Amino acid sequence: MKQSFPKCNQSDMEFVISTNEKQQEEVRFLSGDFPVSVYTQHYRYAASDYVPLHWHGELQVLWIAEGALEYSVNGRHFVLGPDKLLLVNRRQLHGSRTMGGDSRTLCINFTPDIFHPLIRENYVLPLLQSDSFTHSLLLLLPYQTEKLKTFLNWKCEPLQYFSVINFLSLVFEDILGSSENTKNPQNYEEIKLIQTMIRFVQTHYAEPLTVRQISAYAITNKNRCTALFRKYTGLSPIKYLNEYRLYTAKNMIVSSDKPISEISSDVGYNQISYFIEQFRGSYGLPPLKYRNQFGRRQPETDAAAVSVACQNKISG
Fold this sequence. Notes:
By secondary structure, the protein is α+β, with helices and mostly antiparallel strands.
């Protein structure tokens, strides 16, 4: 019996990150039998869009199709444009924000299972398990850019499954062939500690947190807690807490009809006037005007239509 290609899902979203109880990004693969997720993200400069620090158990390839992004991996910052490709290793702390204008990105999340066992065990996994390999930044050749453009409009054609695996294989060939792309020494004890504290903040942001509580959860002292937050997020623990509260509030504002006063309370602000002041300071508009300008009446309608079309095409 001929085996058909699996049903698939492709999404086009405005970068709201969905996380599990460990604050790891939840990734929806094209199918359970094909461990690759292909999706685009749109960053609106006027809306001050950004992706907060997070991590996940999959590898990620990111390409800037339009505009530019400021990207960070484990506290290291750099600018990405259409001429570069970024590969981020598993469980690395990373985030991004647009700069100077709107941006559109292509993301490919995947696991090492896409590779033949011989290649995976002898070449790919030793690289991924190296403490010095956190990410790799590659300069794209014209033919690679053209290939990436074809992934922007994923049609769920059987040949595209082959195409994405072939492209990712070439990415790893480039990385393995250049020792400079594998040298990013990191203090993983620090990274584990900051991830623990970020997880605590992102889980308990609605509560009245203090630096003492955050540091105690990670079994460290307040001074080290503050130093690590400044090193990896660029903010003090309390400023990071407030930024995450406002980010969460922004997502509620644009995706729901909840009263602003209720959202303010849900994210940990007891005084709505203070919440409005803080929100305006971060996003340039008071919450209600922000909703009127950037709210999504029918979120992810286009993505849902693409998903249904893909399923019908592959199953048919």
